[in-house]
Amino acid sequence: MRLRPAPSENQNDRPRLTVVAGGAGGGTSSRRDDRDARFRDIYDRWFHDVVRWLYALGMPSSDTEDLAQEIFLVVRRKLDGFDGGNLAGWLYRIAQLTVRDHRRRAWFKNLVLRRRNVDLARVEMTTPGPEARYDDAERRRRFQALVAGMSEKLRTTFVLFEIEGYSGEEIARIQDVPLGTVWTRLHHARKEFWKLLNKQRADEERTR
Amino acid sequence: MNRLRDMDTDEPAFRRGVDVLRETPATPQAPAMKQRVWRSLRRAQATAAPGGLRTLVLKLALVAIVCLGAGTAGAVLTRRWIVPALDDVPPATPPSTPLPARGAEMARLEPPAAAPAAAPARDTLDERRISKPPSRSAPKKPASALPSAAAVARERTEVLDALVALRREHDAVRAGGLLSRYLAAHPRGALREEALVLAIEAADARGDAAGAQQLAQTYQAEFPTGRFLTFARGHTGGRVSH
Asked: What is the rounded CA–CA span in Å between residue A120 and residue A141?
């Protein structure tokens, strides 16, 4: 097995929407090496995006790490079957299905064991930590709770565009939909956002 | 399309929404988490079973499940159970209170006068379901002090054969012969009490009053507090032999 450098942590390394082509090696081990190289490249470039998608898909920060691992396990297993087309769309679809499975499992587990899913971000911090970090996490959690009332399609489009800073074209490619659909979803999501915001304000005033 | 957070407005409601979006930060980079997940993935890859082996294990598990299912279904359909272990063999003393009559077949089998014999008949008929099919051969070896579960089941079959010969086939001579053989072969048999009662009944049925009396005396001597004592006394006139 060849030694390769650890995954890059370069913040400005934007993902390319292409797959690194595999080598033309004939042997099994060479094919495996090529696949490993492709997987490492995908992991390196797309890990952060997958984490952002998980936030847009409404996953709490406490589940992010496990889900990211699960997603990349699927990616490695299915990499040979990938046609080399829209890598972003392929990865996003895997993330979407993994989140769906996770929700179903959580629902079933909750039904059987009657356990509450505890979001660590909601747990009150008893130890003093970096204040800014806590504030950020708290604001992200509150925003996620606010937009949780939207449908998944509207919410993901809205969060990816308004919070994560994706362009409309990028979202269209990730979600594998026409650009016009992205703008339509965004339009409806914004209307929904105002509604949810007004409802939240009304609730706050009522509790005062 | 512009982002809401980049827009400027004086309208309070709109302003509030824009502020919420501006205050919510994008997902921060998490290099430590990236490294952790990568290490977990490498570990998972190293410990994962090869695809062929995993398939083989799954196939074997599937075959085992099918075999177990088929075996269970076969046992249910043919009513052949695994012979219970010696510890699980119930004692040969049926309930002291007589049970109600159980359908036409049992009514035919049980004589109206011999009420005490009803209990062993019920007992042995029930056990027919959990024992092996009746064997026509005579017992070859005497029972040991601690008989095996198979030996107990064989004993039950022998007594059952005699019961069928006596009650269903009305062949008192054959029933008497079978019971004599059983009593001789199993001096401490689990069903000796029932066999003795049936032997008295068989002797009575073939008109051998002396034989019935002798067997009744034997019963009273061996089972002085037996469940069929009244029935035995009816054949001895109250005399007890020691």
From this structure: 10
Residue B196's Cα: distance from chain center in Å? 27
Say yes or no: B20 contacts chain A, CB-CB below 8 A. Answer: yes
Amino acid at position B19, single letter: D
Distances (CA, A) of B204 to A84, B14, B69: 95, 109, 50
Q: Model-level pTM greater than 0.80? A: no
Question: Chain A, 24-43: which have a CB under 8 Å from a chain B CB?
Answer: 43
Q: Which residues contact B20 (CB under 8 A, 6 or more apart)?
A: A143, A146, A197
The C-alpha atoms of residue B160 and residue B179 are separated, in whole angstroms, by 10
Task: Give how far the C-alpha of residue A28 lies from the chain's centroid of Cα atoms, to the nearest Å.
Answer: 33
B34 and A47 in contact by Cβ < 8 A?
Answer: yes
Tally of helices (H runs) and strands (E runs) in chain B: 10, 0
The pLDDT of A169-183, averaged and rounded, is 94
Nearest residue in A to B20, CA atom: A143
Quote the pLDDT of residue B52.
Answer: 66
Pairs of residues, one from chain A and one from chain B, whose beta carbons lie less than 8 Å apart: 78
Per the CB < 8 A criterion, the answer to whether A75 and A94 are in contact is: yes
Burial of B125 (0-12, 13-18, 19+ CB in 10 A): middle
CB B17 within 8 A of CB A193: yes
Please report, for chain A, how many H helices and E strands are present, in that order: 7, 0
Interface test with B, best of A42, A142, A162 (most B CBs within 10 A): A162
Nearest CA among B182, B163, B175, B173 for reference residue B105: B163
Give the CA count within 13 Å in the CB-facing half-sphere of B123: 21
Q: What is the pLDDT of residues A28-60, one digit of tens each?
A: 677 777 888 889 999 999 999 999 999 999 998
**CA–CA distance, B168 with B85 (Å, rounded to integer):** 31
